[in-house]
Amino acid sequence: MTTGGFEVTGLTVVRGGTEVLRDLSCTVSAGEVTGLLGPSGCGKSTLMRAVVGVQQITRGSVRVLGEPAGSASLRHRIGYVTQTPSVYDDLTVVENLEFFASVLGVPRSRVGDCLTTVDLSSHRDAVVGRLSGGERSRVSLAVALLGEPELLVLDEPTVGLDPVLRQDLWGTFHALAAAGAAVLVSSHVMDEAMRCDRLLLMRDGRLIADDPPTALLARTGTADIESAFLALVREDR
Fold first, then answer.
1. Residue 6 contacts residue 28 (beta carbons within 8 Å)
2. How large is the average pLDDT for residues 51-71?
3. Concatenated DSSP letters of 4-64
4. Predicted confidence band of residue 111 (pLDDT cuts 50, 70, 90)
5. ∠ at Cα 70 (111, 109), nearest 5°?
6. Three-state DSSP class for 125?
7. For residue 74, with 0-12 CB atoms within 10 Å meaning exposed, 13-18 middle and 19 or more buried, which class applies?
8. 114: closest CA among 55, 169, 151?
9. How many Å apart are CA 123 and CA 81, to the nearest integer?
10. What is the DSSP letter of 149?
């Protein structure tokens, strides 16, 4: 596999006596935006946590950028945005970015660049706790971009955003991939699927498809990803 992405082999995660992920294998490569789609509760977030090295696994292996997931050497090479914003509510937008830039050891010039990327320059002096949920999520994304990560893992980053900003952010994801990053984006909104280069469709802790969107539509003989997903579910029963 290329060292610019990650490889999951036979991954099983058991939590509370329940198999959350079952013998799951996949590879995500640099230079692509890979969508991780499926209904809420199917295991998407658990897979993402395993990739970034914060999920205890039961069986299998996860290698990221050529190293075992969770290796100390990977900490500054991965950008991770969780569903819950991971920034400080009592600091302003720019104070949050300046703090994390200091922690990461990146130039302060990256702060302005990242604020521009997520369209928050006009909110730089706003206290994060007073922002909308979508705006707070964008602050978290800006923080994740500070270190110019080789792998960007985004857990439902467009929830609560207006259509124009969603379109702009997808453009950003593709620009990052074109620059050589591997980008993994999870969503339960099927209409975002066509924005991806490849799709990983999950159901009940398993992958039921790993294809480019057009190939998935051709394979199922359907006109949209939601119909394709439903067709695959029927096949999977």
1. yes
2. 96
3. TSEEEEEEEEEETTEEEEEEEEEEE-TT-EEEEE--TTSSHHHHHHHHHT-S--SEEEEEE
4. very high
5. 10
6. coil
7. buried
8. 169
9. 20
10. -
Q: Would strands 198-203 and 33-37 be described as parallel, antiparallel, or unpaired?
A: parallel
CB 115 within 8 A of CB 121: yes
30, 5 in Cβ contact below 8 A? yes
Cβ count within 10 A of residue 158: 23
- How many angstroms separate the first and last alpha carbons of the chain? 32
Helix (H) or strand (E) holding 78: strand 78-81
Alpha-carbon distance values, 28 to 55, 82, 119, 235 (Å): 18, 19, 28, 25
The residue-averaged pLDDT of 86-103 equals: 95
- Stated as kind and residue range, the H or E segment containing 198 is strand 198-203
Instruction: Tell me the two tokens of residue 209.
Output: 């498809």
Q: State how far the Cα of 1 lies from the Cα of 235, in Å rounded to an integer.
A: 30
Identity at 145, one-letter amino acid code: L
CA–CA dist 188, 34 (Å, integer): 14
Strands 78-81 vs 151-155: parallel, antiparallel or unpaired? parallel
- Tokens representing 111 are 């702060």
- Please, which pLDDT band fits residue 3 given cuts at 50, 70 and 90? low
Instruction: Express as a percent the part of the chain with pLDDT over 70.
Output: 98
pTM of the predicted model as reported, rounded to 2 decimal places: 0.90
Give the H or E element holding residue 79: strand 78-81
What tokens were used for 54?
Answer: 């914060």
Flag whether pLDDT at 183 surpasses 90.
Answer: yes
